[in-house]
Each structure stands twice: as C-alpha cells, then as structure tokens.
C-alpha cells in the first residue's frame, strides 16, 4: 500500500475500502436473497450464488447485499432468488442457472428492468 | 475489492479470548473450508462488543444475527445451518432474561436500545487490525478536516464548545486542558494518552484500545496539531497485552498509510507516536506518576502545580488525556460540537461508557448519554439484579468512589448530581450490590486494595490507610469498639485533606460513603456483633442461623 498523500486521496480511498464493511451496514440497500434450502442446493443454488457474486465483482457493484434464506416451499422451481429494491415490489425469480443470474444482475440489479420471463411472482414490500 | 455475501464477526476482546474465541474461529474457518464457502464468506476478528458475559460472541452479517457462548463444537452447526442454508441456529441465540424468548438480531438486544455509541462506535464492528475498515467508517477524516482547514484555535474551540470532559475520572474540561497546553511556552510539547486503566471492574479503555486503536491514534494526532506537539506517547499497562499488540500494529499501519510521521496528508504537519508499557501500578494512572514512569523513573506523584500543561514530560508542556476521552474526539470534529453538546445535561455533555458489573443480569460495557437516571441503566439496560434479589446499592467509582443506595436510584448520572451523593462518576465503574452483600466487608476489601496500591510517598496515605484497614478488619472480626466510627471519620477527613495525590485523597471515600448511608449496618457490627447480611464469618454463631 502506498502512502495517502493528500485529503483528496483519502476521500477517494474511502470509496474503495467502503466495500469492506458494507455488508455490516443496515438499511436502504438492494438485497438479493438466494434460496439455499436442501432443495435449492441440490438444484444448483450454489452455482447460482457463485455466479451472482462473480458478476457483482466483475462489474464492481457496490451497495448491494447478497444473502440467503431457506426453502420457500416451491422446490420445483429451485434454484430461486429474490431481488428486493427499496421502494419496489419484491421480485421472485425461479428455475435459474448461472447464465440467467448474470442477466438478472445486469438487467434488474443495475438497470432496474425486471426480467419478466423468469419471474415466479412479485409481492409488495 | 472482493465481494462477500456474508461476514462472520468473531469478538476477540480480552474477555472472549479468555473464553476461547480463537478455537471457535478456527472451527468456523474449517467448516467454511469443508463446505467450500471461502469465496463467499469472510471471517473477521473484531474488538469487544460489550456483551462480555455472553462470550464467545459471533455476529453474522448482513442479517446481524448474534450467537452467544459459542463453543468450538457449535461452530460446525453455525456453518452448516446458517452459513450454508440460511437457517438461524436457535439454541445459540441470546435469550431474554425474563421471558426466555430468543432474540436473534443484535440490533434488537434490549441492552442496546437506550445506548448511543460514540467512543465505542467502532469496537466490535470493525477489524482493529485493518486500517482500511477504519477508513471506510470515516476514519482519519477528522484528522483530514482539521489539517486541511481548521486553525489550532478553531479545533480547541470546537472541543471546548462540545463540553467534553475528561473521562478518566476527574472530569476536567478537555477543551480547557488543550487550551492551556496550547498557550504554554515551550519549543517541544507532548501528547500523552493515559491508558493505565486501574480501577477494578472497568475495562472500557482496554476495550477501545483493542477494538478501535486507530480512533485513539487519530485523536492524538489532532491533539498534537491543536497544541503544537509533534510527539506523543501512549501509556498502557502491561496487564493489557492484547491492547498493546493491537495498538502497536495500528501505529505501524498508520505510519505506512501516512497518518503518522513526516508531512501528514501533504499538509506539512508531522506527528510521531510511541508506546510506553507500564508495569501496572494503580498510582501510575495519576498523571504526574504516569509521566515519571514514562521518563523511566519510579512512578510516584508530585505536587501540582506546576501542572503537566506547563511542566510535564521532561519539563515540557504536556497534554494528558484518557483513552475514552480521545476516542470521542474524531466524531466531535466530524459532526460538530453542537451535535455532541445536544446529548447529556447542562454541565455534563455527551456520552459516557460505564462498566456494569456485580450482581446484575446483563453485565458488560455500555455507552449512554450523560444524565440518564441510574434506574434506567440498571433495569432497562442491565436487566435488573441477578436472581431478582433486592438491590442494596450501586457502587460508583470503584475503590475510590462511594455508594448510591437503592433509595437514590433516580439520580441523574452526571458529574454534578453524582458528586452531591458523595461519590463520583470516576472512570465509569458501576457495581451492583444486592441484599446479600455486607458493605463493611466490601469497604474493607477496597481498603486492602488502596493500601496495597499506595505508593508510600506521603505519610497520610501510607500510614493512614493502614490504620483505617486495621479498624475495618477489627470490626468485621467482631472486635469493634464504640470509638471506631469516630476514628474512621477523623482519619478519613485527615487523609482527604493532606494526601499528596488524587489516589490518597479519594481512598477514604468508600468508608465515608458507608458511614453516610449504611451507619446502622456498621453499628450492628460493633454493638451487636451482628452482620445483617450474614457475610462476616466471625460474627456468625452457626451457619444455620443465617440460612
């Protein structure tokens, strides 16, 4: 690590390192919940999760929380995930794979366009 | 920067280390490896979270689920259930002391509801060994603000306006101290951090040094700029090895990143910091004794004046602030003095960290606005007296403080109100005493402590305290005489007025406080040879009598 030589450098540096603790701050953030019950994992939720993290990393997206939950009771449609954007209805996607997840990141998480084709349902948040 | 979906925070404050948090952390890392979750989950060691009695503690983010008393064998379950499948492990959750209901989220902890964390803002939340996490939480921004646009006078005024008072015990206005040292003449000046936390039962300074060492480093650099010093020392006691280790690491990191050393942030200001490890004498918390110890001499106090602000370390003007005081400085600079002064009472501003100990349901470190009624601290935050026993008193200020009896539980916890009751906020020790505690026995215990810690330089403290201890010992053994009360009062008065330093002057306080509030209990020991709390063994005829 090189020395921080000015106040401006410090301000810029903070923006970079903010990523380190953002998972620990509450509120006002887009949250992605990957369903990770036994059924989900068996259907490939782990690959979905990894693809999600990988895509986030590649595109350097900040302010998004990726978390997980258990079985939603619709095991037939696993792997599933939910995208919750503050102020928007909660969108539930099903029958996912790695490629679909990468598109959800680009279309929905970044650009705010729900990928209607794979939506199982929406519920008001 | 790598994105993780979850952070597992393992509390690694001294208490949790003692309770075995490191094997737990290893077990979690192993479980994560077994389930191949290394890419998704990050394990972070933090400082003290303040729930020491519930340790080893683990908090899983982003949800913020808190697990208590986690053992190494529980770690595998947390990994396979929570981290892998997202199912909270109910049996490891904190349970409400009254309803026994599990409370999964850290933010819902009943003890946190009335707390405001300023000095302890980062402890338990960031990794103290990673300066970048400190920066991410606005670390070193106060230093940047000060160096890039505030004059030393403006900094001092900001601290003065905030109303911040020394948190080490005396409660002197911090801003005034800075001003005196700024105005003192001297080519070389020093900033010293007093980390010689010696009162039994308090550990907020240790917790801050372990959990957020950079906040102290940053504040010391700010203080250096304000008073015109380019050199600082942190004095930490040798009994705090973990604090010393974290601090040493943090100082090296601060140097590497350019927050210490020559020409900080390109502003031309330079500041260096060193650690001095004290050998653990209570009296070295007294500022003149502390300075003597840093200079390499025997730690004994000197009469004041001259005050350290004029003639301190090696005769140079020296600013001495306590750890908790310093940790409150960066938020005051960033958020402004108005914000800080909006908390607390008219004369006691801001927040204070208290160590809740003794017979209480939820012991630990808490930070509350000054002026909070003691009742709220004991019952709403601390959960009340252990085993629902009757509260007898709260001992404030440890062995140099005094009692706040149950009848005065609505006292506002600020410097003035507490002083009116004959005790002091001190460094923030609050020990809860229930009906089963004998005050005479307790006061005797404190007198033993003061006798042992007396440096022996002045006669009133060296000899006077010994005589007081002899009387107290005699009384607890059933050999008390009628004139003992009078003698104790006379000795107390004498020592209070003639001892050389604060330690000696304050040492009789528990005795005076006992005579003020619990005189009948003391008299019972002397006249009836009876210990109402059934503690003093020599006064019991047989155990069944006190059953």
Structural class of chain A: alpha+beta
DSSP strand tally of chain A: 5
Q: What is the overall number of helices of chain A?
A: 4
Profile the largest sheet of chain B: 5 strands, mixed
- How far apart, in Å, are the first and last alpha carbons of chain B? 65 Å
Helix-strand sequence of chain A = HEHHEEEHE
Poorly predicted residue ranges of chain B:
none
- Beta-strand content of chain A: 15-25%
Question: What do the pLDDT scores of chain A average to?
Answer: 86
Globally, the shape of chain A reads: elongated
Q: Termini distance of chain A? A: 43 Å
Gross geometry of chain B = globular
Provide a descriptive summary of the structure in words.
The complex is a heterodimer of chains A (125) and B (547). With 125 residues, chain A is α+β, with helices and mostly antiparallel strands. Chain A has one domain (24-123): Glutaredoxin (3-Layer(aba) Sandwich), CATH 3.40.30.10. Helix content of chain A is 36%, strand content 20%. In chain A, helix 3 packs across helix 4 (98-110). The N and C termini of chain A lie far apart (43 Å). With 547 residues, chain B is α/β, with parallel strands linked by helices. Chain B has 4 domains: 6-108, Glutaredoxin; 131-340, NADH-ubiquinone oxidoreductase 51kDa subunit (Rossmann fold, 3-Layer(aba) Sandwich); 348-434, Ubiquitin-like (UB roll) (Roll), CATH 3.10.20.600; 449-546, NADH-ubiquinone oxidoreductase 51kDa subunit, iron-sulphur binding domain (de novo design (two linked rop proteins)), CATH 1.20.1440. Chain B is built from 22 helices and 16 strands. Chain B has helices at residues 14-18, 21-34, 72-85, 131-136, 141-149, 152-162, 174-183, 204-211, 213-227, 241-257, 287-294, 323-327, 329-335, 337-341, 374-381, 415-420, 439-453, 459-476, 484-498, 502-506, 509-517, 519-527; strands at 6-11, 41-46, 58-61, 65-67, 94-95, 102-103, 190-195, 231-237, 261-264, 269-278, 318-322, 351-358, 364-369, 391-396, 402-405, 429-434. Chain B has a 5-stranded mixed β-sheet, with helices on both faces. Chain B has a 5-stranded mixed β-sheet with strand order 13-12-16-14-15. A 4-stranded mixed β-sheet of chain B has the order 2-1-3-4, covered by helices on one side. Chain B is globular. In chain B, 57% of the residues are buried. The chains are: A alpha+beta (125), B alpha/beta (547). Chains A and B meet through helix 1, strand 1, helix 3 and strand 2 of A and strand 1, helix 4 and helix 5 of B.
